[in-house]
Amino acid sequence: MSAVLMPLVAQALPLADFVKPKIEYNELAPLLVVFGAACVGVVAEAFLPRAYRHLVQVALAIVALLAAGVLTGILMHDKKSLVAAQGAISVDGPALFTWIILLALTLISVLLFAERSIDGGLSAFAGQAAAVPGSEAEREGTAAKVEHSEIFPLTLFAVGGMMLFASANDLLVLFVALEVFSLPLYLLCGLARRRRLISQEAAMKYFLLGAFASAFLLYGIALLYGYAGTMSLPGIADALATKTGGDAILLAGTGLIGVGLLFKVGAVPFHSWTPDVYQGAPTPITGFMAACTKIAAFIGLMRVFYVALGGTRWDWAPMMWVVAILTMVVGSIVAITQTDVKRMLAYSSIAHAGFLLTAFVGLAQSGSGVTSGITSTQAVLFYLVCYGFPTIGAFALVTLVRDAGGEATHLSRWAGLGKKSPLLAGIFAFFLLGFAGIPLTAGFTGKWAVFTAAWTGGAWPLVVVAVLCSLVAAFFYVRVIVLMFFSDLPADSPDVALPGWQTTTAVALGLAATVVLGLVPGPVLDLASRAGEFIR
Amino acid sequence: MSHELTWLLVAIPAVSAAILLIGGKATNGWGHLLGTAASLASFVCGVLLFFQMQGKSGEERSETVRLFEWFSVGSIKVDVTLLVDQLSILFVLLITGVGSLIHIYSIGYMSHDPRRRRFFGYLNLFIASMLLLVLAADYLLVFVGWEGVGLASYLLIGFWQHKHSAATAAKKAFVVNRVGDIGLSLAVMSMWALFGSSAFASVNAGAQGMSKTWATLLGLMLLLAACGKSAQVPLQSWLLDAMEGPTPVSALIHAATMVTAGVYLVVRSHAIYAVTESASTAVVIVGTVTALAGAIIGCAKDDIKKALAGSTMSQIGYMMLAAGLGPVGYVFAIFHLLTHGFFKANMFLGAGSVMHGMNDDVNMRHYGGLAKYMKVTFVTFAFGYLAILGIPPFAGFFSKDKIIEAAFADNIVIGLCALLGAGITAFYMTRVMLMTFFGEKRWEKDVHPHESPAVMTVPLMILAALSLGGGALYFAGHWIVDWLEPVVGHEEDHAPVSALVMTLITLAVVAVGIVIAVLLYRRDIPREAPVRVSPVTTFARRDLFGDALNEAVLMRPGQYLTRTLVWLDNRGVDGLVNGLAALFGGLSGRLRRFQTGFVRSYALSMVFGAAFVVVALLAVRLS
C-alpha cells in the first residue's frame, strides 16, 4: 500500500513545495514605507504617553508621506515600469503618477487633520468616539482635550490601500486593497467632534453601502475567474483573446466588477452614498475622500477595464456611455437645489466624475492609432491633479465658516460672506470658477484635456452633453458667488475663524494649483503624458 | 521692437489690474490714475505699432508674435501667439483709444464712489482681456479673452451690487453669455477634431478643403457665440438689463467694444464662411432681424440708456448683416464698427453727463430743454446724433450707407429692411434728442442741471470730433478698403442703382423718420408714461416680448414638466434665467427625492443600477 503511495506523494510534494516569491523591494518601497509607518503609528499609540502622541503621529505621518514621495519620485525619474511581486502589482507610469498625487494630497489632508486652532484648541475629530453623544463622558473628554491621534495611522493605511488599489495587477489584490483603504475611511467618517450623530449615521451608511458594493465586486471577480481561470489582469486579457464561449459569465462578471468600481468613483446610479457621507463626515475627511478616493478608484477602474477587459470594449462601452451621461446630468442638475455647501460640493464631485468618465469611455489610446494627441489615461491623470488640489482647498475653507454649533454649512449662512471676509469669499469664488471650468483656471485646462481625449476617441456626443452640463454646473457655482457677494450680510452671520498655518497651507496650495495649472499647465501635462499607458 | 510692444500692449493693463485688485485699500489714493495711465500706455504701444506697420507693404504688415508655449502633449501643441495684422491693430486702437478716453471720463464720473479704485481695476481687466481677444492668433486663446471680457462685464454690470436690479442683471448677462460660449467651445473642439489645431493659420488653410456640412456647422456654432456676446436675436435679452452698470461701462463695454466681439469673430472666420452659404445667410438674417428689432425697442424706451442700448443692438445688427454678405461687406462691417465705436461711446458718455447733472435720473420724461443748461454735452451729443443718422459728412454716413448699398446688391428684401431700419433709427434718435434737450423743462424743483467738469467734457469733445471726422478713413481715397483687403479680402458690390441714387433714397427715408418724430414729440410730453398705448408700443416697450418668449419657450414647459415650481432664486431673476432655473430646478427637485436618506432605498437603487448594467451588457452583445 505504502509502496504504491510513496511515488505519488513524492511526485506531489515538489508541487506543494514553497517557492520564495520574488519581491522587488526597491520598486515597492513607497508602499512599504507608508504601510510600515502606519504599523509603527499603531504601536506608538499604545506605548507613548498621551501628551506626545499628537506631535509624534503628525510628524511620523508627514515624514512617511514625504519619504514615500521621494522614493516614488526616484522611481519616476528612472522611468520604472514593471510588474512586481509575482504579477500582483504593476509599477508603471500611471501608477507612479497616481502615487505621487495621492501622497501629495494626503500630505495636505494630514495638515488639515492636525489643525487645532480653528475650534478653540481642539481638532475636528471626536475626543472619545466611544462616548455617547451629549453624555457627561463626552463633556469631560472635551474639557480634558483628549483626542484620537489614531486618525493618522488610519489615514496612512487608507492612502497605502489607495496606492495599492491604483497599481493592482490582480483582481484579488485589487479587492484586498479596496478593503484596506475603505475600512479606515468608514471609521474616519464617524469621528466628527461636532454633530456626532449625523457623522455616525454617515459612517454607518458608508459602511453598509460599501460592503454591499464590495459584495458586487467580489461576485464579479468570482465570475471573471470562472471565465478566465485566472485573477491576473493580463491573464484575463489573454483569455479574452483566445477563448470562445462563456460570454454570459464574462459579461455578468464585467458588469458586477463595474458596479463595485463605479460605486467608489461615485457614478450614477451608484452615487447615493456620496452626498450623505460627504455632509456627515468631518470636513477635512470629506476633502480627503473627495480628492483621494476618487483618484484611486478612477485609476483602478481604468486599469481593470483597459488592461483586462480592453478586448470586450465594444460590449461595455455603451453601458459606460449611459453611466457617464447619467452621472453628468444628475450631478449637475441635482446640485442646483442643494442648500448645504458640503452637499453641493458632493454633487459637484459627482459631476466631475461624469466628466472624467467621458475621457474614460472615449478611449483615446496611443497604440490604437485613434489619436496623435492626448490619450485618455493621460487626460484623466491630468484632470485628477486639476481637481484634487482645489477640492481639498475648498473643503478647507468650509471648515473656517463657523458659528456656535460648529461649521455653518447651510448655504443661507454664507450670504454676504464677501462683505465679512472678502479674502475667504474671494478664494472660494475662485475655486468655484475653477470647478466651473472658466479659462485660466485649472478647471478649464483639465476639462480641455478630458474633452479633447473623448472627442478624438470618437465620443463627441458625450462631449456635447458634457459642455451642456458644464453650463448648468456654472449656474449653481455662480449662484453661490452671487450669494456671497451680492447679498446682504445678516445680523447673526457666522464667524470666519482665523486658520492656523496648516489650513492656510492647504488653501494656498489649492489656490496655487488652480492658478498655475490654468496658466502654465505644460509641465504637469508633460509629466502626465510621460506616464504613458498601463503596462500589461 | 514690435515683439515687445505687442506683449506690453496686453501686459500693462493686466499688471495694473492685478495691482489695483490685489493692492486693496493701499492703492485707493492713486488707483484711478494708475488705471488711466495703464490704458494710455497701451494706447501709445498701439499707435507705435500702427506706425511701424505703415512703413511696410501690404503683405508684410501682418506679424505673429510667439510668446511662449502654453502646453503641448504629443502632437497637440498650443502656443500663446499674438497676431498683429491690419484687422487687429484697428481694434487695438479703438479699444485703447476709446478706452483711455472713458478711463479719463470715469475719473470724474466715479469721483464720489468709495469703490472707484476697484472700478478702475475691473476696467483694466477688461482692456487686457479684450486686447487678448483681438490679438490672439488661436481660437482657444480667443476663447480665453472671450471669457475674460465676459467676467469683466459681469463684475462691472453688477458693480453697484447694493442695487438689487444690478446684481440680477449681472447674473442674467453671465448666464446668457454662457449659452453663447457653448457655441465657441464646441467650435474650438470641432476645429481640433477637423484640423488638429485651432490656430487661425491652420483653420484658414484647412477650411478650403473641408466638407460643406462641417463648414455650415462650424459657421453656426460661431454664429451662436457671436449672438451671445453681441446681443443678437435670440440671445439679445441681457443687453438692455446690462444698462444697470455705471454709464462709462455701458459706453465702453456695451456699446463700443465688447459687444462688437461677435462681429470680429465672424469677420475673423471669413475662411469658414467662404465655404458655406447657409451659415452666411444665417448671419445675414440674424443681423437684419436684430437691426430692426433693436430699432423698434429703441423707439419705446423712456430710459435714455435703454433707448441707446436698443440702438446699439440695432447697429451691431447692421455690422452682422454686412459681415454675413462676405467679402463685399467685411470691410464695411469693420468700418461701421469703428465709427459706431466713436459715436455711440460719445452718446453714452453724453447720456452719462446728462445723468450726472440730473441726480442720476435716467427717465427722459423728466428731462426737457437741457440744451440751454448743458451746452457742451448738447453739442457733442448732437454730433453723435448726426453721425448715427448718417447725415453727410458725419462718420456714420460713409459706413452705414455702404452697408445699405451692399445689402441691396445682395437681396432686395434685405436691402429694404436695412433701409427701413435707417428710417426707424432716425425716428428714435430724434425722439431722444427732443425729449432730452428740447421742449419745456419737466424736472423737479430740487434738480439743478449743470454742465459736467472738464475731465468729463474733454473726452466728449474728442469723441465728437471723431464722430465728425471718422468718415475720413473711407473718403480719403478708400484708405480702409486698401488697408483691410490683404486680411479679409474685398469685392466691389454691384448695386442695382448707382451709389448716388442710393444715398439720396436713404437720406430721404431718414428725413421722413425725423419729420415723424418732430411731429409727434413737438407737443408736450407727460411726465408719466401713458398707460393706454397702442399694441405696437406695448410690444416695443416690453422688448418685443423677448423675456416673454423666453418664458413661453423655456419656463412654461419647465413648469409643466416639473409641476412643482421651484423658484431657485427668490431674488427674482426674470426671463431666460428663471426659465432655465425653473426647468432645471424643478427637475432637480424631482431627482432630489431619490435622495431619501434611507440606506435601504440607496441599496435598492444600487441593485437596480447593477441590474441595468448587467442587462445592458448582455443586450449589447445579443443585439
UniProtKB/TrEMBL annotation, chain A:
<feature type="transmembrane region" description="Helical">
    <location>
        <begin position="151"/>
        <end position="168"/>
    </location>
</feature>
<keyword id="KW-1278">Translocase</keyword>
<keyword id="KW-0813">Transport</keyword>
<feature type="transmembrane region" description="Helical">
    <location>
        <begin position="96"/>
        <end position="114"/>
    </location>
</feature>
<dbReference type="InterPro" id="IPR001750">
    <property type="entry name" value="ND/Mrp_TM"/>
</dbReference>
<feature type="transmembrane region" description="Helical">
    <location>
        <begin position="462"/>
        <end position="486"/>
    </location>
</feature>
<feature type="transmembrane region" description="Helical">
    <location>
        <begin position="380"/>
        <end position="401"/>
    </location>
</feature>
<dbReference type="GO" id="GO:0048038">
    <property type="term" value="F:quinone binding"/>
</dbReference>
<feature type="transmembrane region" description="Helical">
    <location>
        <begin position="248"/>
        <end position="273"/>
    </location>
</feature>
<feature type="transmembrane region" description="Helical">
    <location>
        <begin position="318"/>
        <end position="337"/>
    </location>
</feature>
<feature type="transmembrane region" description="Helical">
    <location>
        <begin position="206"/>
        <end position="228"/>
    </location>
</feature>
<dbReference type="GO" id="GO:0042773">
    <property type="term" value="P:ATP synthesis coupled electron transport"/>
</dbReference>
<dbReference type="GO" id="GO:0050136">
    <property type="term" value="F:NADH dehydrogenase (quinone) (non-electrogenic) activity"/>
</dbReference>
<keyword id="KW-0472">Membrane</keyword>
<dbReference type="InterPro" id="IPR010096">
    <property type="entry name" value="NADH-Q_OxRdtase_suN/2"/>
</dbReference>
<feature type="domain" description="NADH:quinone oxidoreductase/Mrp antiporter transmembrane">
    <location>
        <begin position="168"/>
        <end position="470"/>
    </location>
</feature>
<feature type="transmembrane region" description="Helical">
    <location>
        <begin position="285"/>
        <end position="306"/>
    </location>
</feature>
<feature type="transmembrane region" description="Helical">
    <location>
        <begin position="344"/>
        <end position="364"/>
    </location>
</feature>
<comment type="function">
    <text>NDH-1 shuttles electrons from NADH, via FMN and iron-sulfur (Fe-S) centers, to quinones in the respiratory chain. The immediate electron acceptor for the enzyme in this species is believed to be a menaquinone. Couples the redox reaction to proton translocation (for every two electrons transferred, four hydrogen ions are translocated across the cytoplasmic membrane), and thus conserves the redox energy in a proton gradient.</text>
</comment>
<feature type="transmembrane region" description="Helical">
    <location>
        <begin position="28"/>
        <end position="48"/>
    </location>
</feature>
<feature type="transmembrane region" description="Helical">
    <location>
        <begin position="174"/>
        <end position="194"/>
    </location>
</feature>
<feature type="transmembrane region" description="Helical">
    <location>
        <begin position="422"/>
        <end position="442"/>
    </location>
</feature>
<dbReference type="GO" id="GO:0008137">
    <property type="term" value="F:NADH dehydrogenase (ubiquinone) activity"/>
</dbReference>
<protein>
    <recommendedName>
        <fullName>NADH-quinone oxidoreductase subunit N</fullName>
        <ecNumber>7.1.1.-</ecNumber>
    </recommendedName>
</protein>
<keyword id="KW-1133">Transmembrane helix</keyword>
<comment type="similarity">
    <text>Belongs to the complex I subunit 2 family.</text>
</comment>
<keyword id="KW-0874">Quinone</keyword>
<keyword id="KW-1003">Cell membrane</keyword>
<dbReference type="GO" id="GO:0012505">
    <property type="term" value="C:endomembrane system"/>
</dbReference>
<comment type="subunit">
    <text>NDH-1 is composed of 14 different subunits. Subunits NuoA, H, J, K, L, M, N constitute the membrane sector of the complex.</text>
</comment>
<dbReference type="Pfam" id="PF00361">
    <property type="entry name" value="Proton_antipo_M"/>
</dbReference>
<keyword id="KW-0812">Transmembrane</keyword>
<keyword id="KW-0520">NAD</keyword>
<dbReference type="GO" id="GO:0005886">
    <property type="term" value="C:plasma membrane"/>
</dbReference>
<feature type="transmembrane region" description="Helical">
    <location>
        <begin position="55"/>
        <end position="76"/>
    </location>
</feature>
